[in-house]
Amino acid sequence: TPGHGAGGGTGEHGEMDDSSKEALMEEAPPRYTESPRLPCIPHELKSLMLVVALVVVALVVVNVTFLLLGLHLSESHAETVLRMTIHGLDGEGTPQMLAMSKKERTGTFAVRDGLNASAAVVYDYSKLLVGYRSWRHRACYITRVDKDNFPGLDAVTETFQRRQGEDVGDKAEPLADRSILGTTINILCSAVPVFWA
């Protein structure tokens, strides 16, 4: 009968429950050991350690940022500056070093100024100026040029060296307004007076 089957099932479960309880009671409960505790650190020391850790992380982030920025700037600068050595047609003579900046629209040449000295000649194509700075003399010289007729490097060097050799005396006044100069000539001549040639 259904009622008898249901009652019999309950009785069997009751017996199983008693036996499982007895089996559980015979086993000893597991023993838990207390984990070792860290020494007590004062709250102020924890705060200080947190601040130091944050400062170290911030410094690392700033350094990495500057390194990556520097790498990016050097890559972009390398793309816009062309450097080359120009030899004479016969392969003889003194090689001329040229650096060109696409952004500034300038060409800078290293030339000789006498036996053991050098000078820099800057062609500024945006300002239509040519500048000259000898490392032997404490002056810079500039001249305006025609946009359709830029003079050659030899002619410019000779003109500037001749002007440099003249007695400046009281006749020549240094350039007062340097805003007409481009960035490259301004940097080249920043510590010396600038004269028109």
UniProtKB/TrEMBL annotation:
Highest taxon of the lineage: Eukaryota
Keyword Oxidoreductase: no
Function in brief: Pulmonary surfactant associated proteins promote alveolar stability by lowering the surface tension at the air-liquid interface in the peripheral air spaces.
Compositionally skewed regions (Gly residues) per UniProt: 1-11
Biased composition (Basic and acidic residues): 12-24
GO cellular component: extracellular space
Annotated TM spans: 48-73
GO biological process: respiratory gaseous exchange by respiratory system
Locations listed in the record: Secreted, Extracellular space, Surface film
Coiled coil, from the record: none
Keyword terms: Disulfide bond, Gaseous exchange, Lipoprotein, Membrane, Palmitate, Secreted, Surface film, Transmembrane, Transmembrane helix
InterPro entries registered for this protein in UniProt: BRICHOS_dom (IPR007084), SP-C (IPR001729), Surfactant_protein_propep (IPR015091)
Record SMART domains: BRICHOS (SM01039), SF_P (SM00019)
Protein name, UniProt field: Surfactant protein C
Keyword set includes Disulfide bond: yes
Region (Disordered): 1-35
Pfam families tied to this protein: BRICHOS (PF04089), SP_C-Propep (PF08999)
Domain BRICHOS per the UniProt entry, residue ranges: 113-197
